[in-house]
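Q: Predict the bound structure with adenosine monophosphate.
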Amino acid sequence: MAKIGINIATGSLQKAEMIVGIDLGTTNSLVAIIHPETKQPVALKEHDSSSLVPSVVHFDVFGNPEVGQGAKRYLESDPANTIFSAKRLMGKSYKDVSQSAGYFTYKVIDDNTDALVKVQVGSSFYSPTDLSSFILAELKKRAEHILKTPVTKAVITVPAYFNDAQRQATRDAGKLAGLDVLRIVNEPTAASLAYGLGLEKEGETTIAVYDLGGGTFDISILKITDGVFDVLSTNGDTYLGGDDIDRAIIDYWLAQKSIDIKVLQKSPNLLQTIRLSAEEAKKALSSSDQFETTIDGQVYQITKSVFEGLIDSIIGKTIDCCKNALADAKLNAGQIDSIVMVGGSTRIPAVKAAVASFFGKPVNDSINPDEVVALGAAVQADILAGNNKDFLLLDITPLSLGIETMGGLMEVLVPRNSKVPTQVGRQYTTHVDGQSSMRVSVYQGERDLVKDNRKLAEFNLTGIPGMPAGLPKVDIQFLLNADGILVVKAKELRSGVEQIIEVKPALDLTDDQVEKMLQDSIENAAADMVLRALVEARTEGEQLLAVTEKFMVKHQSLLTPDEVTQTALALQALQLAITMEDKNLIQTKIEALNETTRPFAERAMDEAVKGALKGKSI
Ligand code: AMP
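A: Predicted complex:
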């Protein structure tokens, strides 16, 4: 265990390297730093351009990615190759996002419902981590251009409700973009830090962070005790924001002009112009009382009072979420000491007024709501750099701790820089029928393959009762106490068999050794991630081969001879792709095999249902 100021980051921190703060947003992303002279946080921008970089990736015909404003131009003209809102997919399986499948205009792979989603563009497959890494790489490039110095260390923000997998996916994206991610910080925590809330070493305060962006709404209730942030509750709506407000104006105009939306959809250019004018009207009404424009020879106008009537129910929904968040935190509105406004849509005076009235006090809105999260990330970065000496330094883990998963991959349970004490748990299962033991190997380090990390311990959880593969539930808990002792518990939940070991990570490592391990991980990040993607594709392919072969043996009678041949060919092709170690080819063949087997998998399901019904009297 180590103090931040003297460990991990240190070697290079003493060289006063710039650590940037990054807000990796759903719609827009940006980078901020603490200005070396004014010591104030500033968002980086090129001359008079905006600090906001649209979180959009467009792939050209050769598969080369372009990020930002340039990519955004293709949203309408080339939707299949233009990826927006990749953040919504981070760390998610298709099952998780299937309800909002209609929202995406690009291809989200949906065959293996428990696997992590992938996006297909042409013949290439990208994970949300890959897509986010393109955005982060662009931000890194811009920052280096503006600052005229290499940028390798960053603090990245994520929503407070992100789970471990989503946080890890964000870390990985940073690593893949060549960034050493010193800390993942909650967006509401960052916004509070930008207002200087929580920078006092002592005392307790409760904060509500109200974040209404372009497409999402989040409310977080935080408690800060002696400089330590605790998320008491979060609430919100993942599909509520400025876009809905624009739509309310469009609907109003269409009703005024008696235009049928179905007719309008046939002239996409006109629809797009109306959409852009609606956003323009909304922004204008934040500072004036009415708006008027001419589109296609027709005058479109709206007054502030009409506008406020239109968005009343949208604002009402956000206030309902605030009520829920308070209830979950077991607080009432009067117990909130400060309210922080985040997101472009909080510029609307009616929004500010409603929030202030609900909480019964004025809101903090003096900082640009589009930049406040990134600015706070820069404040956090500065604290990590050791420049803000007043800030409390907490005990943290210098290196990540995790276990080996299929294919020799490192799965991180406790990411480096986590505060201690900490406890993290995750569930695993078996992959062979009747498997009676499971080997648990504990590693420390930042590389993607365990062979490049430090093995701390290994044990076998034995006595798992015979069950089909995938049925046992093995819960692995990592408990890291304040003295740096790691207790690893493995328990099969159905049978209750359990094993516990204690290990002492990092205690015998010098700062130089820790620094070297970090350096290695950054230098090998790109190669490691490629390898990880290949191992994951190979594991997925091998599992599919096994399942399909088993299915063929069991259900051959349901298949036509032609289907048997087609399946055999698809199996062979996948097997060959696995042997060739080509990630995209493996994924293409997984897709192809799934396509081939889908019809008779459904038939087998019908049979199973019929069989089950036969025995019952109905
Ligand atoms: P964000 O996701 O935080 O970048 O939020 C962007 C949203 O804020 C978009 O829906 C914008 O249309 C909206 N927005 C930006 N400026 C204003 C403004 N002056 N008044 C109202 N909404 C705005």
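A: The chain has four domains: 19-192, 200-365, 401-509, 527-613.
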